[in-house]
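C-alpha cells as discussed.
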C-alpha cells in the first residue's frame, strides 16, 4: 500500500480499493520501529487471557496499545476496540478480555492526544487517527495467530463507543480489510451533531473541548474553528466543512460491511437521528444492519453494558467467525422503561423489537393542536435561556421523564405553546414527530427550539421525554411560508387522558441564540404527525420474583419462628463509659457459612481512640474484610460485640450515621461532575443539605477545579479521592477505608496519605485496611495485625516496628565506604549498609548488643548523633504472622 501523505484529500484518493496489501510484514516492522517493550499479563479467568502492552510509532507519533489473546497459534479473527472521547484504552479492557476469552485476538489503543499516546486531537482525521487504525490492522496481519482472508488482510471487526464508535465507521470506509463493525452511541455527521440545522450546540461543544484537555490539545485548525464559532455563536461554512470531512458520512458509499448500530435514547449530543442516517446509508449499500436503541446515552442513564457487549460478541461471531448459528438479534430493538421495582428502586425495562428497522417516521398518526397565531420574544442576550437537556445532568432527568416526572423550564413571553385535546387512548411515540408551521422574525434569522411535552390531565405536570429539544434556524427566505419541523426522536408512552404540547421556544441553555432582541410570530399549518412504529412487539413483562417468592419466604420464616427455640436478645443499652470511644471490639467471632468450627474471625478484641489512624493489617484470609463488614452492620457476628461511641452495632443502628465508609470502590455517574455526584448522593440519604459539610470534605480531599469536570475525565487517583470525599460527607466521626490506594501511582498514593492524615487531624478517627505496608507505616499511628481471624498484635506503629535486630546509626559526618567495611567486619555484626544520604548506617546485629556496637563506633572515631532500633513494618509484619520465625 502506498503510504498516505498528510493532506486528507490525497489520503482518500491514494487508498487502494482492493483487499490485498503489499508486504504486511514489512509494514508491521515500520509501525513497530522505536516501540517499547512487550509485557504480558494474565487474568484469573478460564481460559487465561494474556495482555501485551506496546508503544507503537505511526508517522513519528506514539500510540499506546494493548493486545489480548488466550495464547497459542490457532488462527482466530481479530477485533479492534476504540475508546470514548476523553478516555483511553483502559476503559475498554474488560470488553477486550471477554472477547479474547471468547476466541478473538483483540487490540485496544489510546487515540492520539489521550492516555499515554502522543500527538494532538484531530477528531478522527483520515490521515491521522483513521490511518492509525489501518496501521494497527497491518500489525494484526503479521500475527501468526490472526486469521487472514488473504495476505496482509486479517479477518477483523471494529467496535467502540462515541469517539471509538465513529472511528469504527471511518475505518470501514477507508480500509476495505474491515469485515464487520459495531459502533455505539456515536455520530454519523459531526457537523450535524454540533451544528444541528445551523445552530451552535455551545454547551456540548464546550464540554467536548474541555474533556479533550483544552483547545491547545487539538489540532490548530480545529482549535481555531471552535474559538471562531464560540465567539460568533453561529457556525460558518468552513466549520461545517471541516467537521463533515472527518465524519463517517463523508465515506457513506464505502461502508459496506455488517453493522450493529447501538444508539442512546438519553443523548442530546448524538441523538437517535444520527443512528437513523447511518443505518439508512449502510443498508443502501447492501450490508446487513441492525439498530438497537438503549436506555442510556451521553446524558447518562442505563448503558445496558452487559447486554450490549453480549450482542456485539454475537454479531462478531456471525460475521467474523462465520457462525451461522449465532443469534444476531432483531433488525430493530428499543429498550422501554416504565415503573419502579419496589424491591430495589431500579427502573423496570423490557425490550420491543421488529423484523425490520422502522426508521423515525413509521406509522404516523395525526394529532390536532390548538393555539392560533402567537407572538413571543427573543430576549436581549438570549437570557434567561429555557432549560431542556443539560449535559452531565440530563441523564438523570431523562430517566425521570420515562417514569412520569419532568423538569424543564420555559420562560413566559419567550415561547409559543400549542396543545392537543386529551387523548382518548394511550399512545406510544416511537420516532420523530413532525409539524408544519409558519414563522416570521422581526429581523434576521429566527432561531427556535422545538419540543413535545406529555402533559398530565390536570395540566399541573409536564414531562419532556428524554429531556430532548430540536433547534431550527429559519432564514428570511424560509419565513412566511409553511416549513416542516422535525422534533426529537424518542420512545415514550403517553397515557390516556394526557395531552401533547408543542412548544417552540426562543432560547435554550444548551445552544447559542441570537443576542439581538426581536419578536417571532408562529402559527401552525397542520396537525402534529406522531410516529408509532406499529410493527414493534414489546416483550411480555415477567413476574417479579417477589410476587411468588415473598409469600413462600413468609411461610418459611413463620415456620422457623415457630419452631426455633433460640431467643432473640434486645439491643444492649449504651455504655456511658465508652461514649467518647470511636470503636471497641470485644470477643468478636464469625464462623464460615455451613461450618461448625471454621472461623473467619475468632475472639477478636481491640480498641480505637479519637485522632488515631489505625491500620488493619493481615494476609489474605486474615478476616479483615469480614471484620469491617460486621463493623458496618452488613453482617451479624456469631459472638462478641462491636460498640461505636458506646452503642452496640446492629444492622441499621442509628449510630452508623456517624460512620463513613469506602469499601470496594464507589460508583459514580460518569457524565456528572464530581460535585454533582456528591450532591446527588447526599440527597439520596434524605438528610438535610446543611449537614453534608460538603465543602469541608472537598477541602480535605483536595480535588480543586476538577470538581466541575465530568467524572469520566478523572484519573484513577481523582476517582479515589472523590470516593473518599463521598465517605467524608457529613464529616463522620469514624471513617473506614478499605484499600483506598488500589490502582494509584506513587504521587497519587502520597496524596491519599495526606488526605487521611488531614482528616484525622481534626480529632476524628480513620481505620484503613491496606496491603501497602510502606504506606501504612507512614500514614498510620496505630496498627491491628490479624492472622487466621485472630488478633496477633495491636499498638502504636513505633512500638510494633521498634524492636528487632536492625539498628540505625546516624553520624554528623559522611560515612565512607572503607568505614562501612570496617563496621561490617566487626564481631557480632551481620551486615552494615549505608543510607542514601551517606550520613546513616543500617546495622544488623548478629550476636552483638547495641551497647557493644556503640563502643566499637566510638573506638573508630565515628561522630555519632544517634543510635536506635530500626525495623521496617514489612519485617515486623512478616515476623508477627510467621510466629516469630521470620
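Sequence:
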Amino acid at each position: 500500500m502506498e503510504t498516505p501523505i498528510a493532506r486528507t484529500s490525497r489520503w482518500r484518493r491514494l487508498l487502494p480499493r482492493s483487499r490485498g496489501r503489499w508486504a504486511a510484514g514489512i509494514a508491521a516492522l515500520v509501525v513497530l520501529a522505536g516501540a517499547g517493550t512487550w509485557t504480558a499479563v494474565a487474568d484469573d479467568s478460564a481460559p487465561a487471557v494474556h495482555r501485551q502492552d506496546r508503544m507503537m510509532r505511526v508517522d513519528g507519533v506514539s500510540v499506546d496499545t494493548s493486545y489480548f489473546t488466550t495464547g497459542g497459534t490457532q488462527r482466530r479473527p481479530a477485533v479492534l476496540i476504540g475508546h470514548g472521547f476523553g478516555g483511553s484504552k483502559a476503559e475498554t479492557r474488560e470488553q477486550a478480555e471477554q472477547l479474547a476469552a471468547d476466541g478473538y485476538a483483540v487490540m485496544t489503543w489510546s487515540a492520539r492526544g489521550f492516555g499515554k499516546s502522543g500527538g494532538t486531537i484531530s477528531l478522527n482525521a483520515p490521515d491521522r487517527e483513521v490511518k492509525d487504525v489501518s496501521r494497527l490492522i497491518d500489525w494484526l496481519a503479521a500475527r501468526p495467530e490472526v486469521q487472514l482472508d488473504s495476505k496482509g488482510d486479517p479477518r477483523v471487526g471494529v467496535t467502540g463507543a462515541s469517539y471509538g464508535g465513529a472511528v469504527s465507521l471511518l475505518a470501514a470506509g477507508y480500509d476495505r480489510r474491515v469485515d464487520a463493525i459495531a459502533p455505539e452511541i456515536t455520530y454519523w455527521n459531526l457537523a450535524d451533531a454540533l451544528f444541528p440545522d445551523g445552530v451552535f450546540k455551545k454547551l456540548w461543544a464546550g464540554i467536548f473541548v474541555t474533556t479533550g484537555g483544552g483547545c491547545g490539545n487539538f489540532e490548530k485548525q480545529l482549535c481555531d474553528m471552535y474559538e471562531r464559532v464560540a465567539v460568533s455563536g453561529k457556525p460558518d461554512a468552513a466549520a461545517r466543512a471541516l467537521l463533515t470531512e472527518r465524519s463517517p458520512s463523508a465515506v457513506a458509499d464505502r461502508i459496506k460491511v455488517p453493522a450493529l448500530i447501538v444508539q442512546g435514547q438519553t443523548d442530546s449530543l448524538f441523538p437517535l437521528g444520527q443512528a437513523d442516517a447511518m443505518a439508512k446509508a449502510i443498508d443502501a449499500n447492501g450490508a446487513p444492519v441492525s439498530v438497537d436503541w438503549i436506555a442510556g446515552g451521553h446524558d447518562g442513564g442505563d448503558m445496558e453494558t452487559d447486554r450490549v457487549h453480549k450482542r456485539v460478541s454475537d454479531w462478531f461471531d456471525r460475521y467474523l467467525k462465520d457462525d451461522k448459528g449465532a443469534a444476531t438479534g432483531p433488525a430493530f430493538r428499543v429498550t422501554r422503561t416504565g415503573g419502579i421495582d419496589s424491591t430495589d428502586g431500579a427502573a423496570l425495562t423490557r425490550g420491543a423489537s421488529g423484523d425490520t428497522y422502522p426508521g423515525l417516521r413509521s406509522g404516523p398518526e395525526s394529532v390536532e393542536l390548538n393555539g392560533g397565531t402567537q407572538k413571543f420574544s427573543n430576549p436581549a442576550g438570549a437570557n434567561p435561556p429555557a432549560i431542556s437537556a443539560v449535559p452531565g445532568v440530563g441523564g438523570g432527568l431523562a430517566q425521570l421523564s420515562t417514569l412520569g416526572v419532568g423538569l424543564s423550564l420555559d420562560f413566559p413571553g419567550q415561547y409559543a405553546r400549542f396543545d392537543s385535546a386529551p387523548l382518548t387512548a394511550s399512545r406510544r411515540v416511537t420516532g420523530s414527530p413532525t409539524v408544519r408551521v409558519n414563522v416570521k422574525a422581526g429581523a434576521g434569522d429566527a432561531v427556535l427550539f422545538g419540543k413535545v411535552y406529555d402533559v398530565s390531565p390536570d395540566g399541573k405536570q409536564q414531562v419532556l421525554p428524554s429531556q430532548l429539544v430540536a433547534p431550527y434556524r429559519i432564514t428570511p427566505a424560509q419565513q412566511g411560508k409553511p416549513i416542516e419541523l422535525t422534533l426529537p426522536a424518542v420512545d415514550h408512552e403517553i397515557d390516556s387522558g394526557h395531552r401533547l404540547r408543542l412548544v417552540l421556544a426562543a432560547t435554550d441553555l444548551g445552544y447559542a441564540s441570537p443576542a439581538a432582541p426581536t419578536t417571532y410570530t408562529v402559527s401552525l399549518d397542520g396537525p402534529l404527525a406522531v410516529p408509532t412504529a406499529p410493527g414493534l412487539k414489546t416483550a411480555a413483562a415477567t413476574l417479579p420474583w417477589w410476587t411468588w417468592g415473598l409469600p413462600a419466604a413468609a411461610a418459611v420464616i413463620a415456620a422457623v419462628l415457630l419452631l426455633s427455640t433460640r431467643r432473640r436478645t434486645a439491643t444492649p443499652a449504651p455504655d456511658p463509659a465508652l461514649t467518647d470511644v470511636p470503636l471497641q471490639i470485644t470477643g468478636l467471632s464469625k464462623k464460615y457459612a455451613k461450618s461448625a468450627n471454621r472461623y473467619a474471625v475468632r475472639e477478636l478484641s481491640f480498641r480505637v481512640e479519637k485522632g488515631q489512624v489505625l491500620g488493619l493489617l493481615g494476609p489474605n484470609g486474615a478476616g479483615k474484610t469480614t471484620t469491617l463488614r460486621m463493623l458496618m452492620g452488613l453482617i451479624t457476628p456469631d459472638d462478641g460485640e462491636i460498640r461505636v461511641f458506646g452503642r452496640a452495632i446492629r444492622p441499621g443502628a442509628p449510630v452508623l450515621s456517624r460512620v463513613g465508609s469506602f469499601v470496594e470502590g464507589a460508583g459514580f455517574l460518569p457524565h456528572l461532575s464530581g460535585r454533582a455526584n456528591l450532591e446527588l448522593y447526599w440527597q439520596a440519604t434524605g438528610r438535610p443539605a446543611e449537614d453534608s459539610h460538603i465543602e469541608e470534605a472537598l477541602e480535605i480531599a483536595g480535588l480543586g477545579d476538577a470538581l466541575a469536570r465530568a467524572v469520566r475525565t478523572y484519573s484513577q487517583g481523582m476517582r479515589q479521592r472523590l470516593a473518599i470525599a463521598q465517605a467524608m460527607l457529613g464529616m463522620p466521626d469514624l471513617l473506614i477505608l478499605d484499600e483506598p490506594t488500589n490502582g494509584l501511582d506513587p504521587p497519587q498514593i502520597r496524596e491519599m496519605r495526606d488526605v487521611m492524615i488531614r482528616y484525622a487531624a481534626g480529632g476524628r478517627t480513620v481505620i484503613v485496611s491496606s496491603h501497602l505496608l510502606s504506606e501504612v507505616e507512614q500514614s498510620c499511628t496505630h496498627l491491628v495485625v490479624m492472622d487466621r481471624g485472630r488478633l496477633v498484635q495491636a499498638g502504636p506503629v513505633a512500638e510494633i516496628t521498634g524492636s528487632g535486630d536492625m539498628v540505625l546509626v546516624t553520624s554528623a559526618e559522611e560515612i565512607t565506604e572503607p568505614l562501612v567495611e570496617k563496621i561490617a567486619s566487626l564481631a557480632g555484626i551481620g551486615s552494615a549498609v549505608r543510607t542514601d544520604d551517606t550520613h546513616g548506617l543500617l546495622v544488623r546485629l548478629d550476636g552483638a548488643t547495641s551497647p557493644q556496637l556503640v563502643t566499637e563506633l566510638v573506638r573508630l572515631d565515628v561522630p555519632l548523633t544517634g543510635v536506635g532500633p530500626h525495623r521496617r513494618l514489612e519485617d515486623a509484619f512478616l515476623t508477627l504472622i510467621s510466629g516469630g520465625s521470620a
